[in-house]
Amino acid sequence: MTTAQHTQPLLQVNDLKQHFFLKKEKLFGPQQVVKAVDGVSFDIMPGETLSIVGESGCGKSTTGRSILRLDEPTAGEVLLFGKNLVNMNKKELRAARKDIQIIFQDPYASLNPRRTIRKMLTEAMSIQKIVPPEQQEARMLELMSLVGLRPEYLERYPHEFSGGQRQRIGIARALAVNPKIIICDESVSALDVSIQAQILNLLKQLQRDLDLTFLFISHDLSVVRHISDRIMVMYLGKVVEIADKHSLFTQPHHPYTKALFSSIPVIDKQHRKERIILKGDLPSPLNPPTGCSFHTRCPFATDKCKAEVPALRAITATHKVACHFAENLV
Amino acid sequence: MKQENVLEVKNLQTYFYSSEGVAKAVDGVSFTLKKGETLGIVGESGCGKSMTSLSLLRLVPSPPGKIINGEILLNNTDILKLSDEELRKIRGNKISMIFQEPMTSLNPVLSVGEQIAESIRLHQGLSRKEAWQKAVDMIRLVGIPAPEKRAKQEPYQLSGGMRQRIMIAMALACTPDVLIADEPTTALDVTIQAQIIDIIQNLQKQLGMSIIFITHDLGVVAEICDKIAVMYAGQVVEEGTTESLFEKPLHPYTNGLIQSLPKLYEDQEELSTIHGTVPSPYNYPIGCRYAERCPFATDLCRDQQPELLTVEQGKKVRCWMYSNEWQGETLMKELTV
Q1: Has residue B122 got a pLDDT over 90?
Q2: Taking every annotated instance into account, which residue ranges of this chain make up the domain ABC transporter (chain A) (predicted)?
Q3: Where are the domains positioned within chain B?
Q4: Count of helices and strands (H, E) across chain B
Q5: Number of domains present in the structure of chain A
Q6: What's the ipTM?
């Protein structure tokens, strides 16, 4: 981390907001807004893996999609190498997307069933015009070997592959344009553990070999623990805690992070924690609670929590928390 | 006190017949379940764990599926020999099931209270009013606030965690002897999963039922099960108490599975993996079904199928390594290094 302080962040996200406006129920009724992502900021350094964790509906996937402008963000900045993706026109954005790619959860849904792997990879390379046509063949073979697939699979269709193999194809397609950063959106969540381990190893190896940076989005904390350098926890569209992984796992400060960690079922008895069972469900994002959005389920909530939104503040150089009482709760 | 087996499954075989051939989804599965006991069935996709559970209630889609062999003894009555009428009296009453996705198993246009009351009326012969009251009580029991109001709502008005609780309320409404829970928490977030597991465990204590918990999540079984059966390619490859299975896994597959989990409290540069993929159920190898992926496999493994050996009281493993014929290296040696 010492050298990293002198380099520029590869990706900077500043106050990103993604608000979805719902259809009005009545003509003159109130406009209902879902604040899926509500003022999220973070940096990612080159070669680093930052993970976003949180439960369904916390906005982690939407954050990933908004960065790529797969959903147009409502407000905020996304600086990739200092250039703001949010105010680029279509042509500039397409060029910029060469550097930033995404791998989805369900590779079957994100691969065109009517195209062979060869066609898919060729298309990706042609759009970005980074590989001259005469070198495409060699590049494809290289990609296949990078992700551990046999070269003859190039002629096959997605349905001929298993889940793990499809995820390898998804990775090959993302790598085809030589990206600097890859957003992995629940990329191993649908896989069996033995296959998941293969893909996680592959991602780590690719990161080493190709100097990749990852934004890893997942709900699985043990996977996140394994792959990340830093971890960001989201709740109802906001960042509640962000820290390097060791600090977060050994000393989580936010009550939500603590409850989340204590809920993970573990095999090893000696690491089993007193389980903090949270009351109730995630509040509706249509009507989020006032003040700290976690106060409805927080065992420590006070009147201050109901009234004031806690700011994300640094408690050590590498650890930030959005809780009024972070210091008292350790 | 002598503990009776509530459920006894012997040599269950469920095959699927399709144009591609015969898929041996469940191929000779046996296990027993005592009163108040929780059995976990774990394994990866396609190992036959869900088909085993569907077979127990005779819910296997037929055709193409067919239970071709075996006995399923619930309180010494063979479920496979019952008439449809008799079967209906048992399902939801003596043995009931909860599924992974409650939204697909709930009726979307009927209030949840009505859906619970229906099975109570059917099995216990209560009046409409009494059944409704019992349904509301059940909804309260699974920890849903304002049960009177919730009972009148339809499934779409409830959250995922609440829907799963409604499923549990429905499954337990007639206090069954056996509850089969097929991936009941897989679609839920961890904090909600913790709530649901807590509820299932509390209700088990109160109602004294036995549970079969089917999941791919080793962490979940480790926390709630008394004993575990690990399935691979349609067969049970290892069975033992939860403690023995995680502390001293005998089968190389069980060991591989546990090792490939990322550790929550340890840094690892690389995860250990299991090479290759599961063999196709249409075409299982003649020898051990895991041999192709097993680092210890010998010619014996590739040529002959191992039996499920009893290594000690309550501990079984389907692996040549624990037979007298074995001459290769053993897993235990590697584990002790």
Answers
A1: no
A2: 22-261
A3: 244-336
A4: 13, 12
A5: 2
A6: 0.79
